[in-house]
Every structure is written in C-alpha cells, then in structure tokens.
Amino acid sequence: MVRFRNALRILGIISALLLLTPRTFDAWFTDGFCQEKASLNGAGTRVRYDAYHAHTFVESPPAPGINQYHLLAGPSRAARALVQAGFDVSVQLEAWTEESLSQVDLLVLNLVSADRPAFRISEINAITAFIKRGGGLIVLTDHTNCYFHNHVLEAPFAELDLQLTSESACERYPRKLSSGNGWTLIEKFTDHPTVNGLSHIGFQTGGTVDQRFGVAWTNPDSWGDQGRVPMYGEGTEIGFYGDFQQQPFERSGPLPVVAAKEFGAGRIVVIGDQNALDRKS
To answer: How far apart are CA 274 and CA 73, in angstroms?
Structure first.
C-alpha cells in the first residue's frame, strides 16, 4: 500500500504541472522534484503502462518542433518522474495474463481508443483478481465518449464497480483557463492520500468520473456538458463534444473529475483528462 501511495503521489505532483510553462517546469523538475523525491522511495515498485489497449507515448517525450497532440499530452513526463524516483517502469505490449500481472505492482492505463484491441474476458478476470490481491490501477479517461473510450472500458469498469459518464466538465469565469469553458481550474479536493498536498489541477477539456468515489471536484456553478454521438459515430469529429453551454437537462456541479476507491486489498484511481499528466501551460 505504501508503494502504491508513493506512485499516486508522484502522479499527483505531475498532474499539477499543467499550469506551468516549459521553462518553469524544467526549473521545478531540476530543483523542486529532486527535493521532493528524497521523501519517496520507489525501489522495488513495478509500474507498467498498458501499450496494448492504449497509445502511451511513454518512451517518446515531447521535443521542439513536434506538435502531435497526443504525444504532447502523453504521460512520458509522469513516467520519467517515476523512474527518477526509483520506480521500475515498463510497458505491456500484449494482452494481460495472470503471469504478466504477477510482475506488476501498479498498472497504468492511458486513454483507450477504439483503434486498439478490446479487453478479452480473460484479461478482465486477471486484472480484477490482480487488484483484489492488492495491486494498483490508474486509469486515464477523458471528455464525453471521445475515441469511443467508454465502449472500450464498459466491460472492465462493470467488473470493477466503476461508472462511466459521457460529458465534459465545464467551468465559468474565473475558474476556466481559456476563453472556452472546457479548460478548467480544479481547486477543490477531498481529504484523501491521492490528492493531499495538491493546490490545483488543470484540465484541458476533461471529463467527469464516478460520483461515489470523487476526490477532486469542480465548483458548484460548473456543469457537465453532455456529449453527442451521431448515428454509427459518423462525422468529422470523433471528440463527440457538446455545445459547451449549459442546457436545462445538464447537471450542475460540484462534479468529480478524479476518483479513488478501494477494491479488495487493492486501489483504483481514475483521472478524467489525459492532458492532466503533461506540462503544457
């Protein structure tokens, strides 16, 4: 449990970097993180990113001149931070089995999409048993049903007693980070080891998570902007956004954007935005 909490603490620290400029990040990573990691000990903790069901970009850090959105929003810096703190970080390139999960303490699943393989029943059973025995799972979701991630996660989430939503978390001025309503400043947290010590998180059009297990929340005047999926999913926009204006049928905040729950002897954390683990300002 201590090892898992340390990994969550690192990922929480990295998620707060969304509001930092690249130069500020580099200074913080060199100075602040080196001081912070002195209190963390990841030695012996095995973290594995799922590169079979999701695009991870763990081994492809952003570089000048490369403007591919998902690469820029990928978790490579979070993985780098874990390595710096002594965690054993690797990637999974094939379907999960009981054997492969026996080599893992913490499984990280980046935002899934319909172009990647679906979860087999045997994988869902193996992952469920892995967590019940004391394993950790971090899942990154996103707004609405973008890239059909809800369809990919529906079966495994049902076994893990997690509910999916199909909305974007929207805020009003002054708690939004751009002219649009989807870039949000999250400042309200439940007293929980996953988020303790965080002052804020930035979301760039993220989604909501299971209300029952929320540990990070939007403000009371926020709302969940319902996504729109056309028949057969056809169209030019696979983000399936709503209109970013609150309608009478859309629920109001506070809404959960990070969830954390116990499952057997293990722990699960769901983060509602893949951008929350990068460093863009």
So the answer is: 6
**Which amino acid does the sequence have at 181?**
N
Q: Which H helix or E strand runs over 70? A: helix 69-72
pLDDT at residue 281, rounded to an integer: 34
Which are the contacts of 228, defined by CB distance < 8 A and separation ≥ 6?
A: 144, 240, 241, 242
Q: What is the Cα–Cα distance from 202 to 185, expressed in whole angstroms? A: 5
For 59-88, the pLDDT digits (tens) are 776 667 766 666 666 677 788 888 888 889
What's the CA gap between 7 and 57, in Å, rounded?
19
CB of 207 closer than 8 Å to CB of 165: yes
Tokens of 246: 């609150």
Q: Write out the two tokens for 134.
A: 């004391």
In this prediction, what percent of the chain has a pLDDT beyond 70? Answer: 78
Which residue type is seen at 126? A
pLDDT, tens only, 6-45: 555 555 544 433 333 333 334 333 344 444 444 566 777 8
Residue 104, token pair as written in the block: 């893992």
Side-chain half-sphere exposure of 271, counting CA atoms within 13 A: 28
Peptide bond into 117 cis (omega under 30): no
Type of residue at 184: T
Q: Is the Cα dihedral 139, 145, 149, 150 positive or negative?
A: positive
Distance CA 50, CA 131 (A): 15
Alpha-carbon distance 237 to 192, whole Å? 37
Six-digit token string for 259: 């969830």
146-184 per-position pLDDT tens digit: 999 999 999 999 999 999 999 999 999 888 888 889 999
